[in-house]
């Protein structure tokens, strides 16, 4: 399990909808239903939000495997009425961002998104797209790993965001970086220079 805070202004409604509320949400990353129960028991109250990663091994799973991961989540957590946040990768260790940009994996990405939309009945569905992009080597969608990585990341983010927009208006895209990172030249990363655009970002985290 992992404890997290964030996303001011959203809270879980009785039927999974959201209402505006000026506070932070207390969230948890889990790997089982038992994790949710254990965390809520420790907290002494229901957690606000559950984070699900739609990949494994820091980008080592392929897009087809990611489809299976999402489908298994829907099976494992059926009937759990929580606010969900979904972390969506931009590439894998064996399928580069250039393939994402070329549309090679559009079918798999669209399937993941449709499955999430079918499972998550919330009025707003939170998607953490290509998270912590400014780590130098933690994820294969790093925007700072090489001279060409910045453009590859920018293009991949915008392409997947376009697919997201095409599936459901309930999806809200988050742009989430890590603090105080340096690029392949050792230069401190200025996030503003990597921002993919207001039209593809709903929440900055």
Describe the protein in words.
- 31% of the residues lie in helices and 18% in strands.
- The protein has helices at residues 33-43, 63-76, 97-102, 106-119, 149-167, and strands at residues 2-6, 11-12, 18-19, 25-29, 49-53, 83-88, 125-129, 171-175, 203-204.
- The strands form 2 sheets. A 7-stranded mixed β-sheet has the order 1-4-5-6-7-8-9, covered by helices on one side. Strands 2-3 form a two-stranded antiparallel sheet.
The fraction of residues assigned to DSSP E strands is 15-25%
Task: Report the order of strands and helices.
Answer: EEEEHEHEHHEHEE
For the CA atoms, what is the radius of gyration?
A: 17 Å
Question: How are the strands ordered across the major sheet?
Answer: 1-4-5-6-7-8-9
Overall geometry comes to globular
Helix vs. strand class: alpha/beta
Query: Would you report the number of β strands?
Result: 9
> Gap between N and C termini, in Å?
20 Å
The portion of residues assigned to helices is: 25-40%
**Largest pleated sheet:** 7 strands, mixed
pLDDT averaged residue by residue? 90
Q: Can you count the helices?
A: 5
Uncertain segments: 3-21
